[in-house]
Amino acid sequence: MRSNAIAVLAGAGALVALAACGSSSSTGNNQNPHPVNHNVTISNSGFTPDTVNSAVGDTVTWTATDAVHAISFIAALSPDSLQGSGPIGVGQSKFTVFLRNGTYTYLDDSVKADTGVVIVQ
Hints:
The model is unreliable at 1-28 (pLDDT under 50). A hairpin with a 2-residue loop joins strand 8 and strand 9 (111-120). This protein has one domain (2-24, 34-120): Sandwich (Immunoglobulin-like), CATH 2.60.40.420. 21% of the residues are buried. The protein starts with a helix and ends with a strand. With 121 residues, it is mainly beta. Strands 1-7-5-2-3 form a five-stranded mixed beta sheet, with no helix packed on it. It has one helix at 2-19; strands spanning 23-24, 37-43, 46-48, 51-54, 59-64, 71-73, 93-97, 102-108, 111-120.
């Protein structure tokens, strides 16, 4: 019985660690009772959609569809210093939870001309 309880706790810890893999624009409690996940696909032709309107506490998930891509937030155009995604392989995803109002502009490191915006209100 005790080994089952330890296995359950270890599994719960793994889920918490996985959920913490995304970056956040701020620390604190999420005041959004119904957070939404917004999906953005990344391809060599750009972001779809290229503008996301979200609420505080929502998540944006970027998924690469045709090549390895990476997201970087443009510091001069974003209110917070957010970490970049690192490489996102074909079919893989990375996410960010936005906990502060603002307009966050980002680019695809592999295709420097492509930019996107997350507007958090």
